[in-house]
Amino acid sequence: MKNLLFFLFSILIFQTAQSQKNSLKKILVLQQPGIKDTIFHLSTLDSIRADLPATLIKGSQSGPTFTITAGIHGMEYPAIASLLQLRREINPQKLKGNLIIIPIMNLQSFYQRTPFVNPSDNLNLNRVFPGNKTGSITEVIADFITTQVFDATDVFLDLHGGDVNEDLIPFICYYDNKEFKEQTRLVSRLSENSGFSTIVSYPYVIAEGRPAMYAFKQAVRLGIPALSIEIGKLGNCEKSDVSFTKNAVYLMLKELQMYESKKVIPGAPAKNKYNRQAYVPGPGQGLFYSSFKAGSRVIKEEEIGYITDVFGRNVKIITAPQSGTILYKAGRLPVNEGETLFCIGYKAVN
């Protein structure tokens, strides 16, 4: 028995080592149709380590490679749970093309229950793209996604949700990139067929020489059709949010002619579309109060909240800079200077 266990362990180590040597694209080419779970072991120059779990699903027929990620922020649970369910349900024999599923991009944040940042270096993974292979561990993860994952990707979907202090409405979003018009048309179509009632398009602006910062914005910069989902709130993991997210992915797979599931529920047309966003930053550290919820309509210059100090004094009034709908807002009492208190979506006439 000991010899058998040693033999199996040796195979595992060998396979892991081979995975580290080969590019992700080459691994997919060499893989036989089926499902392969693997862990990529990443490390900084000073030996700070991080593991990146990934499931590679190769279909029995040729087609595009669709990469879906979650857990870039470790406390956005519905996105993570939906990908783990998807991994169990997908039948490679019915799949055209490949799926790369990375359910938890930031394991340190996930297991230590740290919102937004990786506790190893206190950096937000969704603010450091394209990353740096010689940087801190968060930058190394971003570099691996940029150089290895995106290199093997034809379509990219990044799943997010309301972290422990965020109240939000479910929405799907993409960048309105005028340079890559064909890619923008594709993600617009995927959004329209996702079943989400709210679609948000962001203006695509990156100054010369500036980093993309965000994962799916980096993918867009590389010419990859990319979009993102926001669902769930306040660090909760509701079964309905998990099911809805998974259903949206199935609808996208169907639209891409990659996969059809009997479980899929046809999506209703989107009711709300916003192509501009107004952000309300916190004017200082304090206690935040608001009777408005995500999804509420607000009017320009209307009072929508206030901040006090720890004694309940020195009230700072928060007003809406723009009429529109609250897409997400701070949902807990403590806030710090510069943190987003509200994101208001509205439609601008082009």
TrEMBL record:
A Pfam family for this UniProt protein? AstE_AspA_cat
Q: Where is the Succinylglutamate desuccinylase/Aspartoacylase catalytic domain?
A: 63-254
Query: Which GO MF terms are attached to this record?
Result: hydrolase activity, acting on carbon-nitrogen (but not peptide) bonds, in linear amides; hydrolase activity, acting on ester bonds; metal ion binding
Q: Which domain of life is it from?
A: Bacteria
Q: Which cofactor does it need?
A: Zn(2+)
- Give the record's keywords alphabetically: Hydrolase, Metal-binding, Zinc
Recorded protein name is Succinylglutamate desuccinylase/aspartoacylase
